Amino acid sequence: MAQQTTSKPQSTPIKETDIILRTTGLTKHFGKLEAVKNLNLELHRGEVFGFLGPNGAGKSTTVGMILGLIAPTAGKIEVFGLELSKHRWQILRRVGAIIEEPAFYPYLSGWDNLEALARALGGITRTKITEVLERVNLLDRAQDRYDHYSMGMKQRLGIASTLLRDPELIILDEPTSGLDPAGTKEVRDLIPQLAHESRAVFLCSHLLHEVELVCDRVAIIKQGVMIANAPVQELLTQGQLIQIKVDDAVQASAILKNLPWIKSVKAENGYLIIDAPPNSASQVNKALAEHNIFVSELTSRNASLESVFLQLTGGDSGG
User: Fold this and answer.
1) Does 8 map to a domain?
2) Cα–Cα distance between 167 and 56 in angstroms, integer?
3) For 154, how many CA atoms within 13 A lie in the half-sphere containing its CB?
């Protein structure tokens, strides 16, 4: 199993009041199946936190426990400094969540759908409805029927519905799934803005490129166990690659692939991308020079979150 990656100590200590969500020893059994094992998470105000894992890793079970839909077998969940098991309704009034596709009346307009929800929740003004529609850039389409909305608009209306009570914690499960590139960008641009308004966003997604773009920190779980928990940039740096340009890329690739300390070599846009131990660039150069192959360019570059994810999970796909 991959070694757990932990965050570096932060230069500015996190205040207790800025810890939106904390799980301690969170565990869930379904019969003999241990779906989540001793999970310790911390989500801070103002950040987008990505929660990743292969299919069946325990992500949905964890989200269900955080929302009070599934009772933990062991461990504790604290939200806003309150224990979920003792203050469930007090906490959930301050949480907004979209799990799977948002559900609205197809024959009502976007405005009327939000107004119906506002009446059910109580205490929400028309001004607030206008505010959240403007926040997700749907005010000019507010009177259009929901079934005439694009997928991106439907997802943004779903996010608007979570904002009616001005939540401090927003949980989004696959918010860009099924969207076209334009809709994906609309939602992707909105997510960090929401977090930076003194909220926290807990994001589950299998689209690792999107996670890399919007998240401040990520946790990765596999078979219910957390195997990484770190700032995105720290994970990418740990997965640093070597990029070289040579005249004979085919021969260079064959030489490097025979070296036991090199994990992989692939050709990309005229370069060879080498996954090798940190600080091994000089050894790569030397190995090629010994075969009269000389490097014209040599630089380091960060790996993608996808490659780091696949390395940590042993090649399991996200989901």
Assistant:
1) no
2) 29
3) 20
| SS3 state of residue 300 | strand
**How many CB atoms sit inside 10 A of residue 86's CB?**
9
Which candidate, 99, 91, 89, places its Cα nearest to that of 22? Answer: 91
Q: Report angle CA 192, 38, 30 to the nearest 5 degrees.
A: 100
Q: Which domain holds residue 126?
A: 16-236
Residue that has been written with the tokens 């940190």 in this structure: 278
Largest CA distance in the chain: 76
Do 268 and 211 belong together in one domain? no
Domain count for the chain, please give it: 2
Q: Which amino acid belongs to residue 274?
A: I
- Joined tokens for residue 20: 């939106």
Q: Which two tokens stand for residue 215?
A: 């998240």
Question: Per residue in 271-293, pLDDT tens?
Answer: 998 888 767 889 999 999 999 99
Task: Judge contact between 158 and 130, C-beta under 8 A.
Answer: no
Q: Cβ-count burial of 64 within 10 angstroms (0-12 exposed, 13-18 middle, 19+ buried)?
A: middle
CB 166 within 8 A of CB 121: no
**Does 72 map to a domain?**
yes
For 156-198, write each residue's pLDDT tens digit.
999 999 999 999 999 998 888 777 888 888 888 889 999 988 8
Length of the chain: 319
- pLDDT 10s digits, 250-265: 999 999 999 998 888 9
Q: Which residue shows structure tokens 């904390």?
A: 22
Residues 273 and 220 in one domain: no
